[in-house]
Amino acid sequence: MKKNVLLMSVFAGVCFSAHADEAVKNAYMIEKFDHNGDHVVTQEEFLESAAQRFKTMDIDGDHAIEQTEFLQRYAEHSHPTTTDSGSEVGQRVFDKLDENHDAKISEQEYNQSRLKWFTEADKDNDQKIELGR
Ligand SMILES: [Ca+2]
Ligand SMILES: [Ca+2]
Ligand SMILES: [Ca+2]
């Protein structure tokens, strides 16, 4: 019986986070990427941060993120509670980003995935991400 209750609460937690997802995601993006503080993230601001992030991940500076570079950075930035499955998740994220499967994430592949993320969050299609949409 106790086990069932525990399972229920885990399940409820999952549902809740799925619901809160949208607003939280936009708030997160604005907090991270709004450089000029107008509470709107433009595509320009977003890609600028993407380029900067790419540079910090590309440790040896060859304009590609190798798997080792990616997993190292991923481990550094992942939340402590997720570290037990951190490398596995990191690997999955890497595979997703590496579209042509050459074991490297090129700048183009990286920007493409970022743009996809931006487009998904940009519900009203005005090339801006704002709160409360
Ligand atoms: Ca802005
Ligand atoms: Ca590299
Ligand atoms: Ca690739």
Describe the structure.
64% of the residues lie in helices and 9% in strands. The chain has a two-stranded antiparallel sheet with strand order 1-4. The protein is built from 5 helices and 4 strands; from the N terminus they run αβαβααβαβ. The model is unreliable at 9-16 (pLDDT under 50). The chain is globular and about 35 Å long. The protein has a single domain, classed as Recoverin, domain 1 (Orthogonal Bundle). It is mainly α. One calcium ion binds at residues 98, 100, 102, 104-106, 109.
Question: Which labels suit this protein?
Answer:
133 residues; two-stranded antiparallel sheet; two-stranded antiparallel ribbon; single chain; Recoverin, domain 1; 5 helices; 64% helix; binds calcium ion; 4 strands; mainly alpha
Quick overview:
The protein is built from five helices and four strands; from the N terminus they run H-E-H-E-H-H-E-H-E. With 133 residues, the chain is mainly alpha-helical.
Kindly name the structural category. Answer: mainly alpha
Runs in which pLDDT lies below 50 for 5 or more consecutive residues are: 9-16
CATH homologous superfamily descriptor: EF-hand
Quickly count the domains. Answer: 1
Secondary structure layout:
Layout: H1 2-33, E1 40-42, H2 43-57, E2 64-66, H3 67-77, H4 86-97, E3 104-106, H5 107-121, E4 128-130
Antiparallel strand pairs: 1-4, 2-3
Helix pairs in contact: 2-5, 3-4
The structure holds calcium ion (3 copies).
